Amino acid sequence: MQTKDFKNKIFIIGMGSTGQRYAFLSSKILNNNSNIFGVRRDIYKPLNKSFYYEFIERNISFIEISELKGKISQSDKVIICTPNIKHLEDYIKIREFFKGDILIEKPLCHNLSSYKKARLISDKKCWVSFQYRYSQSLKILKDLIHKKEEKNGFHFRIYHTDDVRFWHPWEDFQKSYSTRDNLGGGCLNTLNHALDLVNFLLGMPESNFIKKTNISNLMNKCDDAYEAIFIFSKLKKIKHICSVGANYASPNKQFSINVTTFDNEYNLNLLNGELAKTNYYNKKPFNKIIVPAQDPQIIREKMFTDMLNSFINNTKKLFCPSLNEVAEFFIKLNIN
Q1: Rounded (10°) CA dihedral 175, 176, 180, 185
Q2: Architecture of 134-296+324-330 per CATH?
Q3: pTM of the full structure
Q4: Nearest to residue 69, comparing CAs of 46, 99, 47, 43?
Q5: Which residues contact 229 (CB under 8 A, 6 or more apart)?
């Protein structure tokens, strides 16, 4: 996975915990820290703590964002991971002088007006970081359901829960961007991997409805849960249906996809990669493990590293959606 001949530079805009993670994994891919630069609005402000804090302090050089234009070349790479509310704004500013490859940490935008602005942009060299598309088990599931000639529709259920109180043990969760509406936080913006997987697996829906809500008293001004329903045309009277639920107030961490067909059921645990197939209607019902479970930390890092490696090295097709694909999909969500 290491790249020894990479001569260009990687500029990571925003050095919070997410930016530090990008820097750490980029360093592993390149086997060289000298080409990686953290870009900050104020390099003298102390770095936020993170799992990678000590490595970043010792190994990564910093420049101020005002210096970026004079230091970047068109063959370099840019990764944007500022607070959610700044993603599109920072992209637009950087595009004024940089025409090379850009990867934007999800979400691309934090509200409908920003998505409308993004929809007007045509950019074939900008992608949005949805690393779960790099799950090997997910790719197998997608192939299985699309190769299967079903006379009937599918029912998908995607469920994602992750307790925001335990994400960053070094900070008060109520001060995190994830729980602050003024920084583009909230469950819908933060746990939107599930929505991207709807797009990845099924494409643009015929109709949809999404309800944001609160199921706890943890958040002051932003949602901590959402529920969604998507309908997809198949035949005149047959539809695919997909329901999505997410929250970050539950201590029971899950990220799963259940697909029910006329005669089979598939269950994918995206955290440990286990993919199983069940058939209840054969003479001998069976439960087959297609992909066995693995260590969730290894799975998580591999997805992120594979995504980052394909962006840095252009070695294979990027599975990440383009800026245009994300804007087209999210702008059509009926959010209430």
Answers
A1: 180
A2: 2-Layer Sandwich (3.30)
A3: 0.92
A4: 99
A5: 208, 209, 210, 241, 242, 243, 244
